[in-house]
Design a protein that fits this description.
296 residues, 7 helices, alpha+beta, 40% helix
Length: 296
């Protein structure tokens, strides 16, 4: 079976626009059942017109089931990047989430006088990063960065209740290294994420990936079919070509900047060497002048 390559922003966007497919993918990544999912309006979800260089970003408001008849509402921010230089844009987008006044919910809290008061509480944030390049040290497909409370004095992990103050200022993250996805998947999540495996693209066409549908659990069929349908969308195919040209231009610009920086570095080094030589020359002259004074 052939599917459109979701490494491309236009395909990834097409996949996530189907709410049921998005729930399947995100539930598997965070390993929690998502009951409802809806797009949050933000510039990052528009394609190319407001495209922020090589980062594609989309935000969801998700209702997660945490227990029997227990739910929590969270913000899920997904960012997909193609170049290591994109890290500063990650930070800026995350800062926007924390600063967004709409990312909060109202809750009633009982006061000491038994009266209830409505308070606004920031929604927890979960970030998911899809990286098209490898990290420096860890060669694993999925990394989870979660938070635990430590009592530093007693060297103990605190369990039980979560503090609103801490939860509002910290967040969990998932980092998916697309380059580390292996054809021999060891878990159901790895099997699902193999739809991003770039080693599966067909010869001379990075737009299409080849996979075997029978390798995927039945519950993920909708997601696979969605990517299969994307191939037939003329706008999707055309926009993938645009992305190729766009990324090639960016990579050429980065190489040019790198060469210029290297040339400047070499120039600075040469200037430093010349300064050192002049300094040594001045020292020699000073010594000669001192010797001449002594002879007089």
């Amino acid at each position: 079976m052939q599917i459109a390559n979701p490494i491309y922003d236009v395909v990834f966007k097409y996949l996530l626009e189907d709410s049921k497919s998005a729930i399947l993918l995100l539930s598997a990544i965070i390993d929690q059942p998502i009951e409802t999912l809806e797009f949050l309006p933000q510039e990052g979800s528009s394609y190319l017109k407001n495209h922020s260089l090589t980062v594609y970003r989309v935000d969801f408001s998700a209702k997660i089931k945490t227990g029997e008849n227990e739910f929590k509402q969270v913000i899920i921010e997904i960012q997909k990047a193609k170049l290591p230089s994109d890290i500063m844009r990650f930070r800026r987008y995350l800062g926007e989430q924390y600063a967004n006044k709409n990312n909060r919910y109202s809750a009633s809290k009982q006061q000491k006088n038994d009266k209830f008061k409505k308070i606004n509480t920031p929604l927890p944030i979960i970030t998911i990063y899809f990286l098209a390049y490898p990290l420096e040290h860890y060669r694993v497909p999925v990394i989870k960065v979660d938070r635990r409370y430590h009592d530093v004095v007693k060297n103990e992990i605190l369990t039980g209740h979560k503090e609103t103050f801490i939860e509002s200022l910290t967040h969990d993250s998932y980092v998916i290294q697309i380059s580390e996805l292996d054809k021999e998947q060891k878990s159901e999540l790895e099997r699902l994420l193999s739809i991003f495996d770039q080693k599966r693209h067909i010869d001379k066409d990075s737009h299409i990936l080849e996979l075997k549908e029978e390798n995927y659990p039945t519950k993920y069929c909708r997601l696979i079919r969605r990517l299969q349908r994307a191939i037939a969308e003329p706008e999707v195919r055309t926009t993938m070509d645009v992305e190729d040209d766009y990324l090639e231009h960016l990579e050429n610009q980065e190489r040019l900047i790198e060469k210029q920086e290297q040339a400047l570095e070499e120039k600075d080094q040469k200037l430093e060497e010349n300064k050192q030589k002049l300094k040594e020359k001045d020292q020699v002259i000073e010594k000669l002048l001192e010797q001449l004074k002594k002879k007089k």
